[in-house]
Structures are given as C-alpha cells and as structure tokens.
Amino acid sequence: MQQAPGPRGREVLAVALGRKRDPLRLIAQLHEKFGDMVRIPVGDTAQFLLGSLDGVKHVFLDQHRNYSKGPAYELLASILGKGLVTSEGEHWKKQRKLIQPIFQKARLRIFSEIMLDLVLEEVRALEALADSDGSADVFSRMMDLALKIVSRTVLGADMQGQERKIHDSFTIILHHIEKLSTSKLRFLELLPGGSRLRGLRKWLTGLPSGERKQFLSAIEALNGVIGGVISQRRAEMNSAKPAKSAVDSSAPDLVTLLLQTQDESGRLAMSDIEIRDEVMTLFLAGHETTATALTWTFYLLAKHPEYYGKIRTEIESVLQDRAPTLEDLASLGMCQWVFEESMRLYPPVWRLSRVAREKDEIQGYSVPSGSVILVTPYLIHRDPRYWEHPETFEPERFCPERSAARQRLAYMPFGAGPRACVGAIFAMTEAQMILAVICRRIFFQLEPDHQLVLEPRLLLRPRGGMPMSVHRVK
Predict the structure, then answer these.
(1) 51 vs 366: CA distance, rounded Å
(2) How would residue 23 be classed by pLDDT, with cut points 50, 70 and 90?
(3) Maximum Cα–Cα distance for the chain, whole Å?
(4) Which CA distances in Å does 241 have to 87, 232, 234, 260, 306?
(5) Which residues, in sequence order, are CB contacts of 158 under 8 Å at separation 6+?
C-alpha cells in the first residue's frame, strides 16, 4: 500500500504555533494541495485528513468497529466520565441501548412544553430590550437559554434555585476545556518523538494553578448538584415502590427516566455513577452545541431577513394565535430548513476524529494502527462536489425532495454512523420551538461595526460573541 501524500510535521507545526492560527484554512489548504487523503506526521505516528465521502463511509460506517473516538475526547473524559460521548466498547453499547428510548415522542412532548415555557420567558425579556432600543449578545443569551432548558429537562423544575450555580460552574468548565483544547502544548506531539511527550503535556496541564483549582471546584459543585438530585429521586422511587414495568413516559425529568431504566431482565440497569456520567454528557452535549447552532441561525437570518418573513408567514398559517406544540413542528418546515442550513454552513461540531485500532487501508493508502483520522464537516458541507452553490444560504435545499436526492454523509452536523448523536431529535425539537416562538415576535439585526471572525475551537464559535440589536415584529 502507498503512503498518503502530505506536508512535513515541522511545516504544520510552524503554522499551528503561529500567531494567526486558523485550522480551518490550514486544513482546506492541505486538502487543496494534497487531495482527499492527507498524511501529517505526528511524532512516531500520523494523522490523516479525510475529505471524501467514500473515505468517511469507510471509517464511520463500513469499518466503524475498527475506529474508536479520537484524542480530543480525552479532554472530555475527565469531566463526563464514561458517558455516551466518551465511552467505548460494551459499556457504550449498553448505555446507548438504554438511553435511546428516552427520546421517544411521548417524552419529547413533555420536554417540548418545558422548552416552550422557557423560550416564552426569554421572548418577554427580549421585548423589554427592544422597547429600550437595546442590543444583546445573542450567543450569550442562547447559551443561557439552552442551559436553562437542559437543566429543567434533565434535573427537573425544582432546580430553579440551583440554576445560577449550574450556570457558573458550566461557564468555568467550558472555558477551561476550550483553553486546553487550543493549548500550544498539544502541538508538541507534532515533533519527532512527540508521542512520548503526551505524558509531559498531561503532567504540565495538571499542575496546580488558580484556573485549575477553579475548574476542579466547578466540577465538584456540579457533581454536588447532580448527586443531590439523583439521591433525592432514588429516595422518592424507593418510597413509592414503583412497579417493575416500562419507563414512565410522564416522568418529569431525565434523571428520573434514567433511574427507572431497566435491563432485559427487568432490573434497574444504571448505577448512580453511570447516571451522573450521562447527566454530565447531556448537559455538555445538549447545551453549547445547540446554543452555538442557534447563534449562527440568527446571524444568517439577519444577513437574509427575507427568511424572517417566510418563517412568520408559515407560523401565522399553521398556528394563527396559539403557541406551538410538538405536533405543530412537523408543519413548520421553514423553521427546520433554516436551522439545518445554518448547521450546514456553520456546523458547531466542525471536526470529527477517530483512532484506528488496527492497521487499515483507506483509498489505497496505508493507515497504521494508532493513526488519528480527522474529518471536517465544515469543509464537506461546503464541497461543490456534494452541494450546488455551497456558499449560498438556501434553506429550501432541505425540503424533503432535495434532501432525498442528497448523497449520504454529505451532511453530518450530528456525526455519522452508530456513534451519531443520540439526542439529535431533542436538539431539533428545541431549535424549532425556539425559532418558532422568537421569530414570531422578535428579530435581530447585526451591529454595523462588528467584524465576524470564526473561532474553531472545540466547537465552531463566533469570536467575541454575536452582538445584535433587538427589535419587535410590528
């Protein structure tokens, strides 16, 4: 087998350590120069940039058992434990099988009612801002709204008194993760012998510091809140002596649903530690990703205000004067298409990584055991081989007829294959509900002096937030 073409490790290192690091631009340039399979020396091993759908299908579908989660998930494992995002093997299979039924329609109806209450509360606050000719950082507001939604749906309505502690803890945790993910210490591994420096990097990042102490305190505080809820719900279940039957679809929060989950023999299937890990995973995966995607959606709506009109026309036709329900969302196609198009142009999860367990061959090139495979949805979503006019904002491309004709894996904002996001339907429900309620009464306009800069860290965020003026729909 041939060795894939690519640059020397020192060339990439020079760019990576430069002042103006731009990984998206770098990856695009490497694909343009070397093709769909690019080899980057990383210490004693290699990383591969994969840009073709055939290659993505090989790694994420055909040979998915040979590929585990990539090194980026090391950062998350210390926080999420063995949740769905970070776990592997039999434990992951077991948890996935237990958790997937939680997102069935009967339970989504309850969650959608919580989403509606909280977004109506947010709209009232935005209307007050609009009346005072105010502006807002839409990114911060969507982060707060998404965190409230995940707090109430996961932990329950009685957590309102703890929401500030949850918010502050997650703000600290996310900042620490972002800082570690972009640390220049991670690029030590590009040097010859760099794989042996991984332990040094872990040791250096684990040294005591003010920020690390704050980070550990935030995790401890969050563990205390989550552990308290789990203990309370388990005590309530034991005192009520629930029957051994299917999970109660009317359960008010996801912790209760997880506690009630049963294995094939009818026994309660998850320990408190396993529930804690999944709750942390649901918080992280269901919070910043959705908030970031909504921020990009409102940015694109401000750039293309005619779609505000299309959304409002649809809402008035379907809902008239009432609030949306879960059943209404199927008729609000424009809300869905606008959100899907924003995730095409600005996918929050802008890169995916996998590690080869055993040696393999991709597109005729040798892939040694231990190699890291990097796939960039941001670039695939803008590839003219798979999308007509890829740089154009065109939500109608997601209508059923055009979606059915699209190549498989050309669109993967929630990942692909067996490891695709289990909460995708929750996120889509949340996004449609938020867009349907906000766009009916509020619209945002871009601040004229704000320069958009992409910040591809753990997620693809707008640098400096998204300051926008707030206006009532007249």
Answers:
(1) 16
(2) confident
(3) 67
(4) 32, 14, 10, 11, 55
(5) none
Residues 76 and 95: beta-carbon distance below 8 Å: no
Q: Per residue in 337-350, is it b (16+ CB within 10 Å) or e — as a string? A: bbbbbbbbbbbbbb
- Cα 27 from Cα 376, distance rounded (Å): 8
Are 194 and 290 contacting, i.e. CB atoms less than 8 angstroms apart? no
Alpha-helical runs (H) found in 324-409 = 333-345, 377-380, 400-405
Contact predicate 43/190, CB 8 Å: yes
CA distance 207 to 458: 22
Say whether pLDDT at 250 is over 70: no
**Contact criterion met (CB below 8 Å) for 450 and 106:** no
Full-model pTM: 0.89
Task: Evaluate whether 334 touches 395 at the Cβ level (below 8 Å).
Answer: yes
Size of the chain in residues? 474
Q: Do residues 71 and 38 touch, judged by C-beta distance below 8 A?
A: no
Query: At 462, is the secondary structure helix, strand, or coil?
Result: strand
The Cα–Cα gap between 30 and 88 comes to 31
174-203 tens-digit pLDDT: 777 777 666 554 544 444 444 554 554 454
Q: Report the C-alpha gap between 321 and 250 in whole angstroms.
A: 28
User: CA-to-CA distance for 234 and 211, rounded, in angstroms?
Assistant: 34
Contact (CB, 8 A) for 370 and 379: no
Enter the DSSP assignment of 407: P
Residue 443's pLDDT band, with cuts at 50, 70 and 90, is: very high
Residue type, 165: K
**Helix H segments across 253-390?**
254-260, 272-285, 288-303, 306-319, 333-345, 377-380
Average pLDDT over residues 399-420: 93
